[in-house]
């Protein structure tokens, strides 16, 4: 059994190293008293943006830890993706709105001469990030896993309860026509990144366009803040939460790059699309740990959200299918970079299987009317 401990970085992957001298010089010029970088390591999780741990020594203080986020190699080929400035802006707005469950933003750099791309630095929030490849080894009891999954849903409810007008968070997007723009946009992204013929992707794109919800219908949910990637490995849990009830199970929510405002069921559908169950295809279970004993089912997740938020989820199936389609497009984009030789990460070689698996799951949901 793997002991429960704080998320741990490892050696930086070849080809993804940082120019420490240039980074230190920039931080000295733009962040007074930041301190001296004594070590850099890379967090191994994730298939998208690259995340590094900076160990920093400040005069007269104990060692401090910060996190640096930057886009992956080849990200310029993906229009509208990996926007570091947007993610930093979201963190700053959430901080100003008094939302406590975020890492404190420190500095954003748009000068690509420093690291070859935009990047930003934030404070590190210590805790445990439950990843699909490590959490099963922790042998987390089923009753604990159930409580953590319930806490995840409850935190999504809390996030959607933020008043986007009073906090100014409404400036992050245009909710009118949001779902249609998303469907059109992700369909175009797929065509731009496509490398192989996957009929199920074509079928899903057609379904999503034909069955588009009417946002002017009576009872349609009012817009909220959307995280747009809400799942286990984007949440930092308190270490004590994994051994027993703690005062605050969730310490921070991470990865705000795609945050905007719009239909809250887009967030719920995306979360459900990650929510693999025990009898799902093995590929889906490699990307989340929700298939472990004790976790809520997708149906129970949806019901808990409905009860906590008071929102109508009668059309949630559509949003779940969109989530599957969007995730498949993201995987296709990553696979496309690999096919072009823009990354040599061996994890990417078999990702076409993921595009096929998720799109086929979406078609099955359309046929069975079940998520």
Automatic annotation (TrEMBL):
PANTHER family documented for this protein: HAD FAMILY PHOSPHATASE, HYDROLASE, PUTATIVE (AFU_ORTHOLOGUE AFUA_1G12880)-RELATED
Segments forming domain Aminoglycoside phosphotransferase: 40-288
Protein name (Swiss-Prot/TrEMBL): Aminoglycoside phosphotransferase (APT) family kinase protein
InterPro entries on file: ACAD10-like (IPR052898), ACAD10_11_N (IPR041726), Aminoglycoside_PTrfase (IPR002575), Kinase-like_dom_sf (IPR011009)
Organism: Spirosoma utsteinense
Lineage of the species this protein comes from: Bacteria, Pseudomonadati, Bacteroidota, Cytophagia, Cytophagales
The keyword Iron-sulfur appears for this protein: no
Pfam families listed in its UniProt record: APH (PF01636)
Alphabetical UniProt keywords: Kinase, Transferase
CDD domains (alphabetical): ACAD10_11_N-like (cd05154)
